[in-house]
Amino acid sequence: MHNEPLAYRMRPHTIDEIAGQQHVIGSDTALYKMIKNGHVPSMLLYGDPGVGKTSLAFAIAGTTKLPFIALNATKAGKKDVEDVVADARLSGKVILFLDEIHRFNKLQQDTLLPHVENGSIILIGATTENPFHDVNPAIRSRCGEIKQLKRLTTEDVDMLLQRALQDKEKGLGQTKIDLTDDQRKKIADAANGDARKALTLLESTVFASFEQNGVTVIEDSILNSLIDRVGVFGDKKGSHFYNLLSALQKSVRGSDTDAALYYLAHLLENGDLVAVSRRLLVMSYEDIGLANPSVGPQVLAAIQAAERLGLPEARIPLANAIVLMCLSEKSNSAYAALDAAISSIHQGKTGDIPSHLKDTHYTGASELGHGGYIYPHNHKIGTFGGWVKQNYLPENLIGTQFYKPIEAGEERRLAAIYHRIEKFKKE
């Protein structure tokens, strides 16, 4: 019986054995052709856990037959880096696979980077975090290739499972296993594009099953219980977590209720109720806004209920909030107007506050020329309240329009009032 986990044993030895990732290492890509010709550029591999970053690095080394050293940036010290440099001096060229590269510290970089620059060390860094956010620019600048690996399709994972079941040397091929096609595909689906998770689940299922007449029989009850224990991929506060938040907001903004509920479910399975609640409250004002002003307080009430209930019951008020926002009229005019005003200030478009708007609650204000403000409430205008024509913007900004109303939902009424006041200004 093998001591290493199945997922470790089934790592590909060459790039031709890589499952999926055709956009990165397919036979028609430049990277594939370079590696086949013996040239390996330094590169960063970015993607979710289990998509094959480590497997690709090992496969590149196996294809080129170059010396290969694997380190983890969370554990490697200066001595480890110096050993890699020494190996590079002896052999002429070494592939260094550095996992969790975004945790590489400056001291390690200073030791390693000159040798990456002169080509004696080929750096293959792997990270689950966005390299443009979390990888030091000094590392990025020395990596000619930054490749984002995608999650494997169910078909890719199913192919890996079949390969593991048939492989007699590295896989489970020496064991007679009664696993139906439907059960195998259920494993592939449960893995959610994570090859390591799929192979681990397969191995656990086989070990948890009983042998009858020399055949290991997989029972649905065993398989289902193990699938229920499979965690949701993506760490809290990692890149994938923020991608989920982004996808949730964009789905609500696009009024896709099913997609929004799917991403909410994913986020709640990660368990960060605070971050989810904060994003929902922002969305209620950013994307619904003046088109339906009642949504903000309703979402706040749902969030407060969720916080008081806690998970899993918190999902109930939050689901209501998501559906409400998806199907509500939408407007971003208010915050877009504020952003336009902020941009104007940053561009230097400022001016002196009109004298009649300046503070007059002190002795001597009139001597400074402050005063002359007309109180709008004393000038009734229909059912609106009060309005009087006077300038409020600095003189050099008079006529500037930041707010551009949207004819949606409740804002349609507000837009009519806005246009009416603008007409009064011109009369």
From TrEMBL:
Q: Which InterPro entries does this UniProt record tie to the protein?
A: AAA+_ATPase (IPR003593), AAA_assoc_2 (IPR032423), AAA_ATPase_RarA/MGS1/WRNIP1 (IPR051314), ATPase_AAA_core (IPR003959), DNA_pol3_clamp-load_cplx_C (IPR008921), MgsA_C (IPR021886), P-loop_NTPase (IPR027417)
Give all residue intervals belonging to the AAA+ ATPase domain: 39-151
Q: Name one Pfam family in it.
A: MgsA_C
Q: Name one GO molecular function term.
A: enzyme activator activity
What are the record keywords, sorted?
Answer: ATP-binding, Nucleotide-binding
Keyword ATP-binding applies: yes
The keyword Glycosyltransferase belongs to this UniProt entry's keyword annotation: no
Provide one Gene Ontology biological process annotation.
DNA synthesis involved in DNA repair
Domain of life from the UniProt record: Bacteria
**Gene3D superfamilies documented for this protein:** 1.10.8.60, 1.20.272.10, DNA polymerase III clamp loader subunits, C-terminal domain, P-loop containing nucleotide triphosphate hydrolases
According to its UniProt record, which protein family does this protein belong to?
Belongs to the AAA ATPase family. RarA/MGS1/WRNIP1 subfamily.
Q: What is this protein called?
A: Replication-associated recombination protein A
Q: Which organism is it from?
A: Psychrobacillus vulpis
